[in-house]
Specification:
This protein is of the alpha+beta class. It has one domain. Helices cover about 45% and strands about 15% of the residues. It has a 3-stranded antiparallel β-sheet, covered by helices on one side. β2 and β3 form a beta hairpin. α2 packs antiparallel against α3 and α2 packs across α4. The longest helix has 22 residues.
């Protein structure tokens, strides 16, 4: 095989592998949420100390209809405590959110967007 043929084959293989990964971790949907003061407190009142815990608590507040923010979307994925526990695990994985996003969530009240995939989540700051 010639060098251009090898390069073309490598490019095709890379594209096929990328498509397989994207398909394996299919986007289920996206939601927006305002992280507010009440999301920084656990249900029993103690202060949460990680961004993953704060985002999880936001979903608990939404699904228990206890304390929601005007900008909070309702999602279909984190309706139970068990599902929110899995969500927190996904939020703690590398790549779920960068350090600046973690700091903004832990130390402020940002508007976030969460992309929910079958095997992962991605969080970014909107405002």
């Amino acid at each position: 095989m010639t060098k251009p043929g090898i390069a073309a084959a490598a490019l095709l293989a890379s594209m096929l592998l990328s498509a397989g990964v994207a398909h394996a971790d299919q986007l289920l949907g996206t939601y927006v949420a305002r992280i507010s003061e009440k999301d920084h407190l656990a249900s029993d009142g103690y202060v949460l100390d990680s961004a993953a815990q704060v985002v999880r608590q936001d979903r608990a507040n939404v699904h228990r209809h206890i304390q929601t923010d005007e900008e909070d979307d309702i999602d279909a994925w984190f309706t139970s405590n068990a599902k929110r526990s899995r969500f927190e695990q996904l939020l703690n994985r590398p790549g779920a959110m960068n350090e600046a996003t973690r700091n903004a969530i832990l130390n402020g009240d940002p508007l976030i967007e969460v992309d929910v995939y079958r095997q992962s989540v991605r969080v970014r700051i909107l405002d």
